[in-house]
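Escalation from tier 1.

The customer reports that the assembly of two entities below gives different structure tokens on two consecutive runs. Tier 1 could not reproduce it. I'm attaching the input and our single run for tier 2 to review.
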Amino acid sequence: MKFTDKLAYAAKKNKSLVCVGLDPDPVLMPPGISVLEFNMQIISATYDLVCCYKPNFAFYEALGLGGMDALKKTIKFVPKDIPVIGDAKRGDIGNTAKAYAKALFEYYGCDAATVSPYLGFDSLEPFINYKDKGVFILCRTSNAGGADFQGLKIIPMSNTTNTTNNSINKPRVEESLFEYVAEKSAEWNKYGNIGLVVGATYPEELKLIRQSHPEMLLLIPGIGAQGGDLETVLHNGLNSNKEGAIINSSRQIIYASKGKDFAEAARKVAGELRDSINKYRFRI
Amino acid sequence: MKFTDKLAYAAKKNKSLVCVGLDPDPVLMPPGISVLEFNMQIISATYDLVCCYKPNFAFYEALGLGGMDALKKTIKFVPKDIPVIGDAKRGDIGNTAKAYAKALFEYYGCDAATVSPYLGFDSLEPFINYKDKGVFILCRTSNAGGADFQGLKIIPMSNTTNTTNNSINKPRVEESLFEYVAEKSAEWNKYGNIGLVVGATYPEELKLIRQSHPEMLLLIPGIGAQGGDLETVLHNGLNSNKEGAIINSSRQIIYASKGKDFAEAARKVAGELRDSINKYRFRI
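Tier 1 run:
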């Protein structure tokens, strides 16, 4: 089943745009529980409240082979009708990107993956060529350092030829790198399987992206622990049907409690987030 | 021991700037041999001809847990005085980058890592903070798509304020994104552990980087299978002491033969590459 169809189905069935980030950190988890058991309990407590799950590979890699084993088993444990986004932010040259795509989609069985655009089209193509899988290209990330390069003003390629002699006196359209990444991503979206990662912490940038790309699927992290304001994010990030965005929350949900009631607490917070989003969407 | 010291020591002892890329691909490897055995034989045949090894994580991830196990054991098998660069091109927000740095430096035991700059300083800082480890920031990559974003003309941040009204008629210094990434990397290099990845396939860009950063350590892939011309690369990439660069070759060395003599063949090609480089360096 195509990622986008699976996502739409889950979002409809569970009336939810919530994605739960499965980012296990032994320091924050309840004591004495394994990563796999922790994830299984979180999933069991929330699978009817979400449209997808998003494990970030870093937290599993940091735990070594045991962590990667838990990751694979976690993905397998997610109900078949809920898609899983492998948040790995990979990006390498074509030959190598192919190996990463194989790892994420075939070995770990992810329905979608996040990828980093710095190496350009041929580094993303091996992912995009899995037509049934989703590919979320990093556009404007939620961290403070995101602006270091993503926020740079650039001169689009088409305007860079022959600029030396005669264009200094002409006004030029200047846009930020992240806007250009969004444009190229839209251009490369021939299979309709590309989405963009745009952080909740930069609502104005989110607005710009949504305005330029009314139908693009957006993966929006940064709500909750990172401080993004929900109502502004929904206002700026949803499409005209009040959908087309995945709202991710990780720490605020999975670490809602450090006690034995952690799964129950996670369910409560996930449900509240779903309801807050729907309240905005459906003006309940 | 600091990565830079370990690298300098190995380069001096083996009179070599050659890095062998350990990128196991079952399709290209001799039949019937495991990844670990393949790597062990390559390392045993070449460790006195190189200044470092560079396993690319993608090829191990594509093989699942068994691949990651072989990666860990491969790194452990490398002689203690030869540094290992974990080519993983990671890049994520601070909290998550910390987990990736832990995986690469602590779990897998790499002496250095490659990282992707798109997410900015706070995504690189957790790597840089391992002061004894090396951090190679992707600058101008060897693939064709590298130009898609890295080659964009940008307006440096310091010039972007108040551009709207009065600067259209003024000439501005325009540089490419990859040059700006190099500048920022140099600015962030307070511990002296940062290097840049610059592909051999773009010698003019390599020259620009070397001119602007005479002492920066450069990791240069793209010789051999990717087609970079050795002499031009050395001319443009070495520092004034005819060092300061790591010349990586992967496929041309490790797949020199698909027969039982693969390790011997790898040794021959690695030795020839070392000698060609030294011929240029020392004008033998």
